[in-house]
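Minutes, methods subgroup
Present: GH (chair), OT, SY

1. OT presented the first of two proteins processed in the latest run. Sequence and structure tokens recorded below as shown on screen.
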Amino acid sequence: MKDGELLKTSCGSPNYAAPEVVSGELYAGQEVDIWSCGVILYALLTGTLPFDDDNVQVLFKKIRSGIFPIPDYLNPSVVDLLQKMLTVDPVRRATIKEIREHEWFKVNLPDYLFPKTGEDSTNIVDLDAIQEVCEKFGVNEAEVQEALLINDRHDQLVIAYHLIIDNKRIWNEARKVEIADFFSASSPPHSTFLSMTKSSPIRPHPEKMPALKDLSVTLDPIDTNNVTNNSSSNNTNSSHQHSSNSQRTLSSTTGSTGSTATSLKKAKWHLGIRSQSKPQDIMNEVFKAMKELGMEWKFCNNSMYSVRARRKVPNTDRYVKVGLQLYQVDHRSYLLDFRNLNANTDDHHPILSAQSALGDDNEMENLEPNRTINWDLEDNDNSMTSSTDECVSEVMEFFEMAASLIRTLAPDSASKTNTTSTSATST
């Protein structure tokens, strides 16, 4: 391999491959890397891949077309950058320089990526860093110094030297922050350290409960001396002291409670089930449980992880409707969330039977045959009145339906189910 030569072989996941790679054409490494970075950026922003299909040939066709879905919640600036990075024509595709000059790339850019250098920095070298480069690459100091004087940014010795310098600088700044915090706990962290920590794009899941803080005392401690003195005094003085002490205790408790309420954040409860199983296995169990309970369901946006289901209320013509959505809480656990759909529903998706939803004929041998169901949720909504009693009834029916589904999925966790349902009603 030589500089400037076109490449023809490739390896790795086809979802990240550029159109020229999947077409078997000669390609330039930097251009296909830009495409792969665009796929990674899209996945980080949306949680899905821009080009995905179980059939490899269909996947390659999608990649060659360069057409991918754009969610409405994405910023127009980042959409413009994605479209430039995922351009089918490699000549028109964005370059590294264009990406670094893009307006979205410059927003909240960490300062440590571009450290400030002094005027005499080119004349000052770190001998320890040069010695480390010599040990890593098996060269002498003269070769490293010569490469630094030429200052070719693509030279491997120059790149290694600056990486070592950057690592030492970051470590020294973090060390200064630790020392400052040790001697003065009230002193603020270093500005560079704050910019590094605040620049992280990771956001917690909205259903993830925050860690509880230490609870503060809201009642004053009992003074045994005052109790003894009060018991020995007469009834009139005792009653007067008891009244004044009660007022002081009440005011102290109220003030302490107010400060506690402001310092502690209210935990956000959820009605659902958490599991560390695979997402498809979780939904397969959900489909079996809904089939066992006689529920009818359909997919939302052709996704098996977002389902709308209903079950007929006995001795009535009404239906209880619930939405099921599977979320990823962290890297190894998932949350099956429940949503009440009785108040507002807008569904026009085709109904799916239990067997087609599972996608596995062997697992459904003991279940009933497929049924073709035709119903419209809006027809039932129009027949419902707006009285308070019916609204309360709908909420309770929703909780009963969710609880029955949870009990079917986790029969050994009935007590936990009741606790979760109670917590959800108080939200």
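2. SY then presented the second protein from the same run.
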Amino acid sequence: MKAQLSFLVGTYLWTSVLSAQILSAQSGPPKGSAGQASLEGLSRSYRTAPVPNERLQNSDRVDALTRGGKLYLSLQDAIALALENNLDIELERYGPRIADSDLMRARAGSLLRGVPLTVLEGPNGVGGPVETPPGSSPPLTPSSSAILNAGSNPLQDDLSIIGATPLSTGPPVPLRDPVLTGTISPGYSNTPQASQFLTGSNSLIGHTLTGNFGFVQGLSTGGTLSAGYANLRQSLNNGRLDFNPYVASSLGLTFTQPILQGFGFGLNGRFIRIARNDERMSDLVFRQQVISTVWNVINLYWDLVSVNEDVRVKREALDLAQKLLEDNKARVEVGTLAPLEVTRAQAEVAQARQSLTNADSLVLEQELVLKDVLTRTGTADAKVSAARIVPTDRIEVPERDELPPLEELVRVALQDRPDLETGQVQIENTRLALKGSRNALLPSLNFFATAQGSALAGQVNTLPLPGASPGTSSARSVDPAFLGGYGTTLSQIFRGKFPDYSVGLELDVPLRNRTARADLAHDRLILRQSEVRLRQLQNRIREQVEAASIALKQARVSYQAARQTRILEERALEDERQQFEVGVATSYDVILSQRDLAQARSNEVVTESDYVKARTALDRATGTTLRNNLVILDEAYHGQVSRPPSALPPD
């Protein structure tokens, strides 16, 4: 029993020292004692980095901008709220962390799981004021399509240019994380024997204790280094053994290295380089998500400004209609106007009131969409739900647009667009993966070398020899170098008493190699497809920049025309009123002129909105949305904007 305990303690101490050395090497320089470093390294191997909790409460900026049931927003405040609270951005904040975990897998020698490349487009707004053709009545609802589409979010922009077909993984990469294995097994056996000649008994009874330990480490060259330490302690009722009980031990090292398929630092490090590129792509996808969200918030904000302005226009039209009604009633009372004109004026008041109601409904719907984009809780928060949004900025159309030449805009877009850079990184990753597919064509030729030391030690067998004459001495003549226990076997191993060496080559040649050839052809075709898609993306970017530039110019022309029309309609209404005063024009003529003016004012609001949206679209097409709106990407990633909230207007 004492010998068995010595054996167990010895093997445990030996493997503990080996484990401590390996784990401390993996964990960095030790802190404090060697035992403390070993425990820290061991615990670190079975823990992961903490995952941040989801943030589902609104930032303090929401309360700072709210007073008296109103949420006062400048455009910069709206952008800051989106950067801190928007859930689409919050989703993409996990992307870089996912990429970091993939890099850890690659460094361990495992296959990559991939990173998401989808960007969520923000919800649609109501789209601005409702245009009513001249001479027609407003719709019964504010805008059926606008209400139904507002808040919908069906779009996901996939930045992948590789497609859904996976690339070949190529030759396997050795696991870089060292692996320790161990087996400790006591055993008992009782085997019947047909003859006593060999064992001296018809029942061979054995007590065994096995302790085997191994270590495997993959190398960056594609090779593998393994070590094995095997121990066996056995006690038998066999009188023919020279040593009983005895301990047999062996310590072996094996090195294997691919020479053709699977050889090389670059080949076996390709997944690490791909994972690092995936980290870049995750950052680019996050940037694209911020661009998409900021662009969406800007459009929603200006839509809200536009529909609020349209409410003002509709209220002015209602005031004009009510004034005409009062004037007509007064004229009827004095007998200078027919009662029919009062009825017409009343109908105009009802129509103007309906238009105002529709415009108010659009404002409420637009506020609802904007609250969902700018807060984490949406309208589930009673305070947010009850608050009315008051935009503090107004659309201002500059006298002229100072735009660089078109080619300069295209150059900036090709340089700054994150979706294009994401495509370029995917091409680079495909070429890295192609190294594996190309290397898999080679035959498998592996070099291997083994070195092993064996040892044996025990006590002289005191059992009588089977078949010996009675009275014969059982003393045995044995080599004293074998006498001892576990310590003796260790001494024999490290002194190289019983060595065993071997080297060799192992060749595996597939005669047709169709799988590897097909994989390489497949991956080359995917690369060509990706290059074509990248060219398509470049062409699409150029087309988007040109289209946005044309739209901006057209929006300016439309605004100038609408502004001039509104000025002329104001003059026309004034002329109609003067003619009505002298009896040349009828009340109906004044009503038509008021309608035309109201529509002209609404059209001016629409063209203002179209202009600012065209300008925003040009910023997105050129990839300058963040720069032109003073967005700091690092603040967006951490969800904390350093810019303080705007001062609230006085009560």
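Chair's summary of item 2: The chain has two domains: 2-14+175-218+223-261+444-508, 67-102+125-153+284-418+519-638.
Next meeting: continue with the remaining queue.
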